[in-house]
Amino acid sequence: MTLLIAVSTGLAAAGVNGQTGYATTPTSAGAVDLKAVPLGDGYVGSTPKVGYVDSCVTSFNPNAGGSQVDGPWIDTTAKTWNYTTKLAVNGSVSWPQASYKATVAGTKRTITFNDLPINHTTGTFPIASDDPAHAYDANPNHIAAQAFTMTVPATPTAANKPSCVGLGVIGVLSDGVVLYDALDGEGRDAGAHEVLDACAGHPDSGSIYHHHDVPPCIVDKVPNGTTQLVGYALDGYGIYVTKDASGNLPSNTQLDACHGTTSKVLWNGKLQSVYHYVATIEYPYTVGCYHGTPASAPAGSKHTNNGGGTGPQSGGPPGGPPPGGPPPT
User: pLDDT grade, residue 30 (50/70/90)?
Assistant: First the structure.
């Protein structure tokens, strides 16, 4: 995979922040059945647990926004969803003004970007009434350029204890687009419920285009049998895609409660053993809680992570054992 290292509208032959090459890290991950991905609904808590989002907000309004109808790809009885048949929003909109730049000075990494994708198109938003996606998710929001600066530790350290993730921005990915946690505005599994574009993105009520996971347009470019840096969380730790020789991503059971692990990866230009978050097909996808101390989200980015509207948060999701993980403790 090739990722941008400076302001551009295309790709450069380098990794995130100038890190070239791949760390070869074969894993023993078992394949997740893409036709029956475990549904993450209800796996929200106020303490770290494998397979959960440790959310700073744990009460949600079922009418807060997001998709209004479950699509046929969701099997509420089996509590799974079909990744292969889920609809995507139509359209192929280019953003030639997109920009992203990551620099390191002293102990800080500063990422400046306008939240438009540097290396892929988006769907057409608001979702048109004649788009088949509209029947399930009538997202009325637009995509607009932002002026974001995210400053995080260049060499993050573990906090005394993990901390919860908030609604809105929890990091930024290598396509120059912010990352939100795995929840939609109603506290459900956003990856399953919300109808996104071909690169798994959509705008919220603040016109902020965002992902809820590491999207296929990034994952698919990482070679099998390798690990690659594809973004940064607010605590400064890297977000990586790791594939075994068959192209499988790790399972939740191979990761800790914050959805991370410590292993040898390319970090700050060196192959070294460091903590990092790991992308999965399974909910919660990227960051379940912060392993380090999170920096402030970019100014102006504190909007609720929903696509269909806004509303107060009340009511709570049910509990239960996490998909792909051990029973709650």
Answer: low
